[in-house]
Amino acid sequence: MNPVQQRFMIFCVFVAVIIVGVALLIGRGLTGTTVEVDLNGKAKNIQAERAATLQERLGVDDGASIAFIYGADMEGSLETCG
Amino acid sequence: MARRAKYVESFKEKYKDIPVLHVDVGHLFNEELAAEKPETLREDALLMNEWMLKGFSQFKLDVVNFSRRDMLYGKVVLDKEKYQQQVISTPILGDMISANIVPAQDINKITPLKPYVIREVQGNRLGKKGSLKVGFIGLTETWPAGTTGFVINEPLEKIKAVVPEVRAKADLVVVLAYCTLGVAKEIIKQNPDIDVLIAANAVALPPPPQRDGKTIFVYSVNQTKSLGELRLYLDEEGKVKDYLNRYIALDKNVPDQADAAKVVATAKTEIDASKAKLLAAEEEELKRLNELNNTNQKSNATGQPNKVPSN
Q1: What is the pLDDT of residues B91-126, one digit of tens each?
Q2: A76:B17 CB<8 A
Q3: Whole-angstrom Cα distance, residue B24 to residue A66?
Q4: How far is A42 from chain B (nearest CA, A)?
Q5: Over the range B218-243, which residues count as b (16 or more CB within 10 Å of their CB) and which as e?
Q6: B143 contacts B41 by C-beta, under 8 angstroms
Q7: Contact assignment for B27 to A70 by CB distance below 8 Å
Q8: B213, B192 in Cβ contact below 8 A?
Q9: Chain B CB within 8 Å of residue A66 CB
Q10: Do β-strands B116-122 and B131-140 pair in parallel, antiparallel, or remain unpaired?
């Protein structure tokens, strides 16, 4: 293999690594797999991540002491909205 | 309700060390009026509201704020003659609170609501005491109460009187307020001793959570399409050192709680039947009025007197 071919091979490997990396990032975005804690180590706010599973939505145990789960404006409907 | 119940159940299963209190900030009931009787709920609305009480008595809320939008059904269900029996069959009614919606004295037919309740939780993350008393105060903005049998007192005046009373009995003071953003901010400004204010006012996009002084302020999402989750982090003295507010989308990725789904299905069957009956009656009435109109048009043509619609 001459030096030009060697450089071409290295270039191809480099491009392949970039493609795989980008694909992984896109895949993670599409499936909703997320980092579970934010920069402060608290369970991440997943308001916008609608593809997340129930377990992902529950987040992680970040040392919270107590939780309030709240809602409002059910308007007499037990059925699911939206 | 089935997805909401599933999330709460799953949270309790996953986080056994984190005590959780499940609350509703108001407008639990339907307020659709009957066309022929002003300020009276439609038959299907009455049935829907009855099912709300049954559903949330089984999949229990810890406390419910009785708001200005709940007064029409409150007139029915808080009637002094029926109240005791109703609380036995649907205990959640006894957990409804309001500090500023009171029975109109001149009518005196309504059972007064508790202005606040205290809930005690235990846990190994609640500071040295290992327990925490949480005082919930219910509040709603002023609104014409009409003939509901209630009067809404000025919330800013009422809350000033109630907060010190609750503070003396509780470690944490939480206000559930059905009101606009402006009123919520004024409540916080005038009552800096409130630890948490959870507000609601049928908003689709809640403002960002914030901390003003010591008060943490969050808003509910309309129709609970997303469930609010507020986590508090306490220090050794049981004081709030930090918080995290999240909104959990209750879409199809959150499965139904199986038993709750059965309740919802039974309710839906009954309510649909009631709606169909009402619709049939409305169509029948329309048909009758059309026939009467046609008869009168013929009478006008022949010079005979018109018939008057009867009820």
Answers
A1: 999 999 999 999 987 667 889 999 999 999 999 999
A2: no
A3: 17
A4: 7
A5: bbbbbbbbbbbbbbbbbeeebebebb
A6: no
A7: no
A8: yes
A9: yes
A10: antiparallel
Most confident range (mean pLDDT) of A26-40, B137-151, B186-200, B291-305 is B186-200
pTM as predicted: 0.81
To 5 degrees, how large is the angle CA A33–CA A39–CA A44? 45
Please classify residue B27 by burial: count the beta carbons closer than 10 Å to its beta carbon, then call 0-12 exposed, 13-18 middle and 19+ buried. Answer: buried
Chain A interface includes B45 (CB < 8 A): yes
Nearest Cα residue to B230 out of A11, A50, A68: A68
Is residue B139 within 8 Å of B159, Cβ to Cβ? yes
Q: Does A35 touch chain B (CB under 8 A)?
A: no
Of A51, A68, A71, Cβ closest to residue B224 = A71
Lowest mean pLDDT among B39-48, B120-129, B213-222: B39-48
User: Contact B136/B176 with Cβ under 8 angstroms?
Assistant: yes
Give the number of beta-carbon pairs within 8 Å between A and B: 197
Distance, in angstroms, between A12 CA and closest chain B CA? 40
Does B200 contact A72 at a Cβ distance shorter than 8 Å? yes
**Does the distance separating the beta carbons of B48 and A73 come in below 8 Å?**
no
Each domain of chain A, given as residue ranges in start order, spans 3-58
Task: Check if A43 contacts B (Cβ < 8 Å).
Answer: yes
Q: Which residues of B touch A63 (CB under 8 A)?
A: 125, 233
- Which residue of B231, B236, B271 is the best one to mutate when testing the A interface, meaning the one whose CB has the most A CBs within 10 A? B231
Task: Express each pLDDT in B151-204 by its tens digit.
Answer: 999 999 999 999 999 999 999 999 999 999 999 999 999 999 999 999 999 888
Q: State whether CATH 3.30.420.10 applies to domain B2-254.
A: no
A30 interfacial to chain B (CB closer than 8 Å): no
B57 CB within 8 Å of a chain A CB: no
What residues pair up with B249 in beta bridges, in sequence order? B226
Tokens of B224: 């609970």
Residue extents of the structural domains in chain B: 2-254
The whole-angstrom separation of Cα A38 and Cα B246 is 12
Complex confidence, ipTM: 0.88
